[in-house]
Write a structure and sequence with these properties.
single chain, alpha+beta, Bacterial Protein-export protein SecB, 4-stranded antiparallel β-sheet, 38% helix, globular
């Protein structure tokens, strides 16, 4: 029994670990360049969403992941508002192989951050006196797979030296 317990403890040290340490806003901005005129016009918005992620290794097994959501809303040809949030998180991640680590940082962590970023943007936009955005969920696994495929294709097409 003692051998089994020490074997299990040794495996526990090798088993993957993941924990969220902190979620925070790294940067936040809102601009309504055509106010107050924009509030006197018929509201027919068109929404443009850009999203980006980046990650940075911190001390030890800690990693910062930043999800940036940038929204530009136009009413006709005029820009009604521009809003951006950089939602960040610190994650403790250890014991993962390179491919699993890449997927965790590139898809799993942004998936955790997205609801916080979406709520922050909605709140910011409503405080600017505009209707809430109510952004649809994003499939970060699919976006990550597309990026891997794009990188693989660009590597295959690169001329050999």
């Amino acid at each position: 029994m003692t051998e089994q317990a020490s074997s299990d403890a040794a495996q526990g040290e090798q088993s993957p670990q993941f924990s969220l340490q902190r979620i925070y806003i790294r940067d936040l901005s809102f601009e309504a360049p055509k106010s107050p005129e924009v509030f006197r016009q018929e509201w027919k918005p068109s929404v443009s969403l850009d999203l980006n992620t980046r990650q940075k290794a911190l001390d030890g097994d800690f990693h910062e992941v930043v999800l940036t959501l940038s929204v530009t809303v136009k009413n006709g040809e005029e820009t009604a508002f521009i809003a951006e949030v950089q939602q960040a998180g610190i994650f403790l991640i250890k014991g993962l192989e390179a491919a699993a680590m890449s997927h965790t940082l590139g898809a799993f962590c942004p998936n955790i951050l997205f609801p916080y970023a979406r709520e922050t943007l909605d709140s910011l936009v409503v405080r600017g006196s505009f209707p809430a955005l109510m952004l649809a969920p994003v499939n970060f696994d699919a976006l990550y797979a597309q990026e891997l495929k794009r990188m693989q294709q660009s590597t295959e097409q690169a001329p050999a030296n």
